Amino acid sequence: MPIARVAFVTSEAYSTLSVDDRLAADALARIGVAVEPAVWTDPSGRWGGFDLVVIRSPWDYHRRAEEFGRWLDRMDAEAVPLWNPAALVRWNADKASYLRELEGAGIPVVPTERVGRGRALELAAILDRRGWDEVVVKPAVSASAWGTWRASRATAAEADARAAEMLINGDLLVQPFVPEITTAGEWSMVFLGGRFSHAVVKRPADGDFRVQRHCGGSAEAASPPPHLLAAAGRALSAVRWPWLYARVDGVESAGRFLLMELEMIEPSLFLAHAPDAPQAFAEAIRSVLESLSSPRGNVRPRVSAAAAPPPAA
Question: Is there a single domain that holds both residue 278 and residue 189?
Answer without folding.
Answer: yes
